[in-house]
Amino acid sequence: MSDDGTDPADPARSAIASARSLTAVSRLPAQLYAARMRARERWRRLSITVTVTLVLLAVAAYIIIWHTPVLALTTVRVAGEKSVRAQQIVNAAALRDGTPLASLDTGAAAARVRRLPPIASASVSLDWPHGAVITVTERVPAALVPEGARYDVVDVSGVVFGVRDAPSGVLPVIRVQGSPAVKAAVVPGALAALKALAPVIVGQVTGISASSAYSIELTLRDGSVVEWGGPDAASAKAADLAALLRLGKAARYDVSAPEAPAMSGRYD
């Protein structure tokens, strides 16, 4: 103890305490840095683990979907068929049983189905987990065209998709007087007329005849004749014919000039 009552050792103790405090404070940033590094390492390892797991899952899914029978084709359904047998459509699609669904070329299968003459359109869709659906739209018969001793069945676009031995009495027969070249020119115009007419009037048409593309005539069920003319202005001619038919029955209707329709030989 000194004469003034202070302990000479106190300054020393204070200095030591201050030094220790400074040392602890100086260690704090290092500890925080080390903690951050440990946390960063944990996140890095976790990220690697998650990435590897996801890659393995993706590989497993790829193998299961593309290279195993777990999701393979076992059933094929057909929708939209009418006159064509479903089995014929399935055979045309040529989809092999046991093929993984993911590897099926649905576009190519649909194209094979469209090669069937009666099929206007076709699509193939997958029906997971084991099926495929073939959806078709068949061509609609529009007329019969004599070909030798038989009759070609054509749709409104002129596509031949069937043959019949004799007229059915339901479809109009397109008869062309002239060479194959004349026939090739007349048939599209005749079909354009049928396409333009209202269904109720189409049902009255029993025959179409022409000696050139611009001399088309329609014969109706009551025996009356429609002078149609050429393939031009089909919609206007169809509207004129509908208007004339509403006026009453006649032996002959002339819509070849749609701006001046006429009817003659009225008998009612």
UniProtKB/TrEMBL annotation:
GO BP terms, alphabetized: cell division
GO cellular component: plasma membrane
Keywords: Cell cycle, Cell division, Cell membrane, Membrane, Transmembrane, Transmembrane helix
Keyword Transcription regulation: no
InterPro entries xref list: Cell_div_FtsQ/DivIB_C, FtsQ_DivIB, POTRA, POTRA_FtsQ_type
Subcellular location: Membrane
Transmembrane segments: 46-66
Protein name: FtsQ-type POTRA domain-containing protein
Species this protein is from: Actinocrinis puniceicyclus
Organism placement in taxonomy: Bacteria, Bacillati, Actinomycetota, Actinomycetes, Catenulisporales
